[in-house]
Amino acid sequence: MSKLRILNSREVKVIKEQLRQQFGYALEEQYAYLQNEKERVFVVNRDLANLDLEKLRIDRVGLYFAELRPSQVRLSKEGAQLLFNEARKNGIKLKNVITLTKIETRAYFAGVDLKKDLGEENRLIILTYEEDVIGCASYKEGKILNYLPKTHRGEVIL
Q: What are 58-89's pLDDT values in tens digits?
């Protein structure tokens, strides 16, 4: 059972600043952010954060939002969808959003790294197909590295 820790406002501020640098936007909704030992961040309604987590036997709580890395925040599939949809609702266009073709999307859901020229800069990107967010991936040396979990992969996607 993982132990969750509620992040303080300074830690949340660092996460939001990294998201602004990476994607040009951070969540504005008032969530509580919890972190486990694996550096994974979950978001929950602020009311839920008032519970004494030490007394509860829980494995997971909230939405798996992101994984913290030393210099970046890698969004989960659901975290990318949440960020993208909130930004769109507020009329903000995110940066580092890449739209894939149907063929590229099928290959991505098959677990393949995609060769695509997006410039020299290595960075995290949000992948979309038409109006749907597929997830967050890393662009490095001319390749989009596939971080899609095996549970989300499949061949009959489109």
A: 666 789 999 999 889 999 999 999 999 999 99
Task: Name the residue ranges covered by the structural domains of the chain.
Answer: 1-93, 96-158
Q: Does domain 96-158 have CATH number 2.40.128.20?
A: no
Give the tens place of pLDDT for each residue, 142-156.
999 988 888 777 775
Question: How far is residue 27's CA from residue 88's CA, in Å, rounded to a whole number?
Answer: 11
Look up the pTM and report it: 0.88
- Separation of alpha carbons 101 and 124, rounded Å: 19
Structural domain 1-93, CATH architecture: Roll (3.10)
Residue type, 133: V
Task: With beta carbons less than 8 A apart as the criterion, state whether 32 and 18 touch.
Answer: no
Compute the 3-state secondary structure of the chain and give helix, strand, coil in percent, each to the nearest 5. Answer: 30, 30, 40
